[in-house]
Write a structure and sequence with these properties.
The complex is a heterodimer of chains A (about 190) and B (about 475).
Chain A (H helix, E strand, L loop, with lengths): L1 H12 L5 E8 L2 H16 L6 E4 L9 E2 L7 H10 L5 E6 L4 H12 L10 E5 L5 H8 L7 H9 L15 H7 L1 H10 L1
Parallel strand pairs in A: 1-2, 1-3, 1-4, 4-5
Chain B lengths: L1 E10 L2 E7 L3 E5 L6 H15 L26 E9 L2 E10 L6 E9 L3 E6 L2 E6 L1 H19 L6 H9 L2 H5 E5 L11 E2 L1 H7 L4 E7 L3 H11 L7 E9 L8 E2 H15 L1 E3 L4 H5 L17 H12 L4 H10 L3 E7 L5 E7 L2 E3 L6 H14 L5 E3 L8 H13 L4 E5 L2 H5 L6 E7 L2 E6 L3 H11 L3 H7 L10
Classes of the chains: A alpha/beta (about 190), B alpha+beta (about 475).
Chain lengths: ~190, ~475
């Protein structure tokens, strides 16, 4: 965090436009594309006083596809991304329901290397990414927001990136814990 | 219907092996361990049961090239355990091609806990489970009582019911005149099923003389053949038509043919075939080399008026600003046109990976009952592989994938991995017996799953794990 502020301040003092460069590690490809578009929308809005940019990596696109949880490859990925000199690394995982939330959080946390140069943040959905869409569209769900979306609007996973246009940042910033966490991770 | 287990005997290096299958299955192993042989089993089944090829071994240059250690005297056996609406249904076929003559020697169809049907040569035996018979016989007796006093019922249906007795149902065999395979001999007895459906049972039958031949006899001789019929009592399966439910056996018969006919097997693609314009033909199953991909997509494109979102959306994640169109050429052939940022790309300038992604996404879009992909990683960047694997996992398709790629392994849950190994020339399939334990073991040591596979012994299931 200290280093992030230092970087931002250093850029500010040079009078250049401030940009936060992030690396996102997300559970699946469609989720990655969704967040890419979320950042594009945030940049168009006034939610953040600076632009957020996905850090360019040499071998692949950013966001990065996370391996399944408990796969030590995640630690290796974080260690490698730490060398990319981004302002922030954000891990985004499903929480799979309030009863699993803290266990999932600790599982994700256990993969973070002890020493990194880049600040690392964890964003955990209460259930899954589709909760942002359900809350924006005022759709209630029982156990999985994606199931409710499938029933109500015939949702398919491949449509996830397209649903960014339905996400209401204003509403989510007041009512959605995971969205607030995501915004905090960008601040 | 989902394939739960495959048992193979004497096919190439698969001497005597069985493999448990889930919804998503990733086969890993060194070169020549037998991964592709498993893929070929499904091709052979299609040749036998759908194409009804009189010489199904021709593609392999003869039976001696497909049978274990070229021992032509050995028959090949393929057994498959299916989950059909929650019931276990096992089908086994044993055949030979010795002396250049293809012949099915024996078939078994076993609805576990209900009825077992066996065909050997032209003899068919049906054996009902005793516990089920105890349940169904009192019901049949009641229906018979009811029929005695009901003269609206046609005579033939009354006769059918009176043939249903313990002697006929416990174990019976007949010699059939047809040379068809067992599954295609199964007929539906709608009339009897209508009486039994409220008790949860239905009736199928196998006729000594085929129903078609019986009809011809009626037309020619003016009377029914005095044939023997085997009745098969089995559970009914609810369907959209409540008045006429399917029996489990009918559902299995239809879905077995559908699975074998519509499954998609993709081997490494021959890209130049895909790039070549084709004469349009309505097609709905991709060939294993992808050579008819343009026709498949053109068929979809004509039907939908565009590329479906399930194909286009993921394609654009990997190839942004790329569009695919189809054009009918002056000579009547159809060609695939690819544009990037509005500029047309000439086929030689289009990457192999583009066509591979398009073929894989199309295969998933077609929702085959079984999707088999040999060496999925060819031509694909790791992040493209991630997209493809996410798309397959998210779909309803049952998939069997072979790979050498650590990237694919690291994207796979340990429970979905199957190691293909050769022991003394025989292929063996192994799953990790306690996947959660292995996950913990690898995490404690800071090893990725692929590292545990390549440099460790995570499939040995020994106590140290």
């Amino acid at each position: 965090m200290v280093q992030y502020l230092k970087t931002m301040k250093a850029i500010e003092s040079e009078g250049m436009p401030v940009t936060l460069e992030v690396i996102l590690i997300v559970e699946d490809t469609y989720g990655g594309e969704f967040f890419k578009r979320v950042l594009q929308e945030l940049n168009k809005s006034n939610f953040l006083p600076y632009k957020v940019k996905l850090k360019k990596l040499s071998g692949r696109r950013n966001p990065i596809h996370a391996p399944y949880l408990c796969n030590p490859k995640l630690k290796k990925i974080i260690t490698a991304t730490d060398t990319a000199n981004a302002d922030r690394i954000i891990l985004i995982y499903d929480g799979d329901g309030p009863s699993n939330y803290s266990q999932r959080f600790n599982q994700v946390k256990s993969h973070i290397p002890a020493k990194t140069n880049t600040p690392i943040k964890i964003v955990l959905f209460e259930y899954e990414v589709e909760e942002w869409i359900c809350k924006s569209l005022d759709i209630k769900w029982d156990s999985k927001p994606s199931d409710a979306l499938k029933r109500k609007v015939g949702y398919k996973k491949s449509q996830l990136p397209k649903y960014v246009s339905k996400v209401n940042f204003e509403d989510l910033s007041n009512s959605c814990k995971s969205f607030q966490e995501f915004m905090d991770a960008l601040r | 219907m989902r394939l739960k287990k495959l048992i193979v005997k004497n096919f190439k290096s698969l001497h005597d092996c069985e493999i448990e299958l889930g919804k998503f299955n990733v086969l890993i192993g060194v070169n020549a361990s037998g991964k592709s042989n498993l893929v070929e089993i499904f091709k052979l089944l299609r040749k036998i049961y759908v194409e009804k090829d009189s010489n199904p071994f021709l593609e392999w240059w003869g039976y001696n090239n497909v049978v274990w250690q070229r021992k032509e005297e050995l028959p090949i056996t393929i057994g498959m355990l299916f989950d059909v609406e929650g019931y276990d249904v096992y089908f086994e076929t044993t055949f030979t091609g010795t002396g250049g003559r293809f012949q099915i020697l024996r078939e078994i169809l076993d609805i576990r806990g209900y009825v077992k049907i066996e065909k050997e040569g032209q003899w068919i035996r049906v054996e009902h489970d005793e516990v089920q018979l105890k349940k169904v016989l009192p019901i049949i007796s009641k229906i018979k009582e009811h029929l005695k006093n009901n003269y609206i019922i046609p005579d033939f249906l009354r006769d059918d019911f009176f043939r249903l007795n313990i002697k006929n149902l416990k174990r019976l065999e007949i010699q059939i005149q047809d040379k068809e395979n067992l599954i295609s001999l199964i007929s539906v007895e709608h009339g009897m099923t209508l009486f039994l459906k409220e008790f949860g049972f239905g009736v199928n039958s196998i006729h000594e003389v085929s129903p078609l031949k019986a009809l011809i006899d009626v037309a020619e001789k003016g009377e029914f053949s005095r044939e023997s019929i085997l009745y098969i009592i089995n559970p009914i399966i609810p369907n959209k038509r409540e008045d006429l439910p399917d029996t489990l056996l009918t559902k299995f018969r239809d879905e077995f043919y559908f699975m074998i006919n519509h499954m998609i097997v993709l081997k490494p693609l021959i890209i130049n075939f895909i790039k070549t314009p084709q004469y349009p033909k309505k097609e709905n199953r991709i060939y294993e080399d992808g050579s008819n991909l343009t026709n498949i997509l053109y068929t979809i494109w004509l039907r939908e008026g565009r590329l479906p979102e399930e194909i286009e959306a993921p394609l654009r994640i990997i190839f942004p600003n790329t569009r695919v169109f189809f054009q009918l050429m002056e000579d009547g052939r159809v060609t695939m046109k690819v544009f990037e940022n509005g500029l047309e790309l000439a086929p030689p300038s289009i990457s192999d990976g583009f066509y591979k992604v398009l073929a894989l996404l199309t295969a998933v879009y077609l929702k085959p009952p079984l999707l088999i992909i040999d060496e999925i990683e060819n031509s694909l960047h790791p992040e493209t592989l991630e997209l493809i694997l996410d798309t397959i996992k998210e779909s309803d398709v049952q998939a069997i994938i072979t790979t050498h790629s650590p990237v694919v392994v690291d994207m796979t849950e340990p429970a979905d991995l199957i190691l293909v190994d050769k022991e003394r020339g025989e292929t063996k399939f192994k799953r990790i017996r306690e996947p959660e334990k292995i996950k913990k073991f690898l995490q404690e040591r800071g090893l990725a799953l692929s590292e545990g596979w390549l440099y460790g012994s995570i499939f040995e299931n020994n106590e140290s794990h």
